[in-house]
Specification:
Blueprint (H helix, E strand, L loop, with lengths): L7 H8 L2 H8 L6 H12 E4 L13 E3 L2 E3 L3 E3 L13 H11 L3 E3 L7 H5 L4 E6 L4 H13 L5 E4 L9 H6 L28 H9 L6 H10 L4 E6 L2 H10 L3 E4 L13 H12 L4 E4 L6 H10 L3 E4 L1 H8 L3 H18 L5 H4 L3 E4 L7
Parallel strand pairs: 4-11, 5-6, 6-7, 7-8, 8-9, 9-10, 10-11
Antiparallel strand pairs: 1-12, 2-3
Helix pairs in contact: 1-13, 4-14, 10-11, 12-14, 13-14
Length: 358
């Protein structure tokens, strides 16, 4: 019986092909940023309040115009049928039962309309070379009832993920990018010394996306627009000037620029720059309810949770994982003396002295 989100990973590793496990677990380069994300979270300390009379904390949050039960959402993650035959539909249904948003990936292995029919959803947009396909995806997401558009801006090209290169990773025939017209892609064509998924990304994604493209998208997107992949407060400020409704502070889970700042370390300056003007979310490295509390204490509206939910999906434990994360959030709030998220944001945040002995 898993007692933490981390407990799902070894269970998933037992049932997954080694190359699929590496595809999910790995980062780019030497995986410095992948490790840094966790080290940075572990270094953060909170000073709890006492005698607050809190017995039953309320962790609900309102973001992008909707009230949700818990201050986290399912992050956009590609090709979830690699983990389970039902893929995105299984995790989306669990998100619906938990009362949290589910973010549909452009590279989902189930059509976005089917996923949106299961749960209230946001749609994550990758910028493709074909502008007509981008327009079509926006229209499809809006027509399917997605309540926000989350455009990912930190993948001009896929980071060099050495595990995938060494495994010569390619998608199996029964897993495909179902939202794209050409579903049989380079991602299926294994080749010596290459990642087929990276080859597909290089051919499909537009590397030269600019602020002008974001401005264009803002004029054509009738639902709240969120930019994912911001680390520098200057970029966050520019996004607000374009008219976005939210930003996601993210280093793509350590899968893009190896050596990038940890997302949680970048969060504070971004909050200071834009929090009065738009929602600020965080992803990369979130592994517990305490991590959620730390991000909110620094100023995040809420967080996106990724890899731990894929491990849970692989062993049909998505409901259990989300329930566990919710319990951890409530327990951490109670121990910190916080009745609601507004009180969490008033906590004093510090940093541990390293190294910490085990």
């Amino acid at each position: 019986m898993p007692e933490t989100l981390a407990d799902f990973e070894p269970l998933a590793r037992e049932v997954l092909p080694a190359a699929v496990y590496d595809f999910v677990a790995g980062g780019s380069g030497s995986e410095h940023t992948l490790r840094l994300n966790r080290a940075a979270f572990d270094a953060i300390t909170l000073t709890p309040r006492i005698l607050t009379g809190t017995a039953k904390p309320n962790p609900f949050w309102t973001v992008l115009g909707t009230r949700w039960e818990l201050p986290f959402a399912v992050a956009p993650m590609a090709y979830q049928k690699l983990l389970h035959p039902e893929g995105e539909l299984l995790l989306a249904a669990a998100a619906s039962r938990a009362g949290i948003p589910y973010t549909i990936s452009t590279l989902s292995s189930v059509p976005l309309e089917k996923i949106a029919g299961v749960t209230p959803s946001w749609f994550q947009l990758y910028w493709l070379r074909d502008r007509h396909v981008v327009t079509s995806l926006v229209e499809r997401a809006v027509n399917a009832g997605c309540s926000a558009m989350m455009v990912t801006v930190d993948v001009p090209v896929m980071g060099r993920r050495l595990r995938d290169i060494r495994n010569e990773f390619a998608l199996p025939p029964d897993v495909a990018p179902e939202n794209l017209v050409d579903k049989v892609t380079q991602a299926h064509a294994g080749a010596p010394g290459l990642s087929a998924v990276a080859a597909h990304t290089a051919s499909a994604f537009e590397p030269a996306v600019s602020w002008r493209d974001l401005e264009w998208l803002r004029t054509r997107c009738p639902i709240p627009l969120v930019v994912k992949g911001i680390l520098d407060p200057r970029d966050a400020r520019r996004a607000v000037e374009v008219g976005v409704d939210g930003v996601v502070v993210s280093n793509h889970g350590g899968r893009q620029l190896d050596g990038a700042v940890a997302s949680i370390d970048a969060l504070g300056p971004v909050v200071d720059a834009v929090s009065k003007d738009c929602a600020v979310l965080l992803d990369s490295g979130v592994r517990s309810g305490l991590d959620v509390l730390k991000a909110v204490a620094i100023g995040a509206s809420g967080v996106l949770v990724g890899r731990p939910l894929l491990w849970a999906l692989a062993v049909e434990g998505a409901d259990e994982a989300l329930a566990l994360l919710g319990r951890e959030v409530r327990d951490a709030m109670l121990l910190a003396g916080c009745a609601d998220l507004a009180a969490v944001r008033e906590l004093s945040v510090g940093r541990a002295t390293w190294p910490i002995s085990s």
